[in-house]
DNA sequence: CTGATTATTGTCCCACTGGTCAATTGTTGA
DNA sequence: TCAACAATTGACCAGTGGGACAATAATCAG
């Protein structure tokens, strides 16, 4: 029953190596051998730990997803008001550590395969729905349900778009500018939305 | 000097075939042979018209770009007020003909290669800067320059994000919903922006 | 008509890829 | 100590991909 520790470690190394290769080479240029080289191992070992190429890159996507999740969760710890929760999610998505072109390139390559890989599709759905639910946990305290849904969708979409832009034209979107775009969006939409039914305005600024 | 007609026709056929293959197979699965098959020709002919694989897919991206450009230009013809111009650009980007998952999949695959292909990068830049300039031609009549720039960037980003979402979860974003998201965004940001310096408010609604 | 140019095909080659497998080398627990 | 087992390697294979090329067909200019 006890899982071999070494096994877990290798698998993690290989997932990360796979992701690194994805950054450099894109999905079209990513090969098992390159992943092995990146991890300083032999090709055989990669297929010892992962059934095939697909599984390897599916785990690579899970891996990158974890980083994002952790960043958001960490920031969510100290957030108490709805607005703080909202900002936590947004800020977490632009963590300097990983709001970077190379990481974005890998992410893009994975996204490009989503339509042809059911597992990747599922991972994507999970990521998106978690982000949405995190945003809603803040938004519900600020506006009525219908608006909250729309604004949450808008925020995720805007964030996706900013990431995409970072991948396509790295110079054209700094972390600060990206953050400001999202915050301006939130401000503008909150200003023209209905207040929530059960909450008093005072709590918003608290 | 006169370019062979036939040559132009073949090249166009092959560009389109390449794009079709990209929709089905993604960049990782797209091969010259499949493109040839798609066009009902032999592999040799593809490399007769295009220096290599890269060039072929660069032209495929140009091709897809044309479709978008034409859609926007057509709608822009009849637009006279700033607001009409703005809507023309936005509507054009969600033309039912091509706001579709399969097309989006191909587009995504091309985007994923942008970081590793200087030509693709240039095409991307052109597309983006044209969209931006089209948006600005409307926005400048509605808000001050600084706001116009930010809002234009926000709109392009939002549109990119909506396309991306269409690719990742086709069911989750209908054309109508996408349009509403963008329109709501514009409305909210216009409401909280400064009016333009040289234009009288009356002209806005004219 | 004819010579030159262009279009098109099919073949060939070589590098590489994903994946299998047998063999080797630790590692460990009794 | 030794047997069982996990980790790791390197060789191997069949299939495929990109691209070069020579040969053939079609087109066209004069």
From TrEMBL, chains A, B:
It comes from the Bacteria. Gene3D superfamilies: Tetracycline Repressor, domain 2. Residues 31-50 bind DNA. Keywords: DNA-binding, Repressor, Transcription, Transcription regulation. GO terms for molecular function: DNA-binding transcription factor activity; transcription cis-regulatory region binding. It holds the Pfam family TetR_C_6. The keyword DNA-binding applies. Pathway: Amine and polyamine biosynthesis; betaine biosynthesis via choline pathway [regulation]. One of its GO terms (biological process) is negative regulation of DNA-templated transcription. InterPro entries: BetI_C, Homeodomain-like_sf, HTH-type_TetR-like_transc_reg, HTH_TetR, Tet_transcr_reg_TetR-rel_C_sf, Tscrpt_rep_BetI. Residues 8-68 form the HTH tetR-type domain. Repressor involved in choline regulation of the bet genes. Repressor involved in the biosynthesis of the osmoprotectant glycine betaine. It represses transcription of the choline transporter BetT and the genes of BetAB involved in the synthesis of glycine betaine. This is HTH-type transcriptional regulator BetI. It comes from Mesorhizobium mediterraneum. The gene is betI.
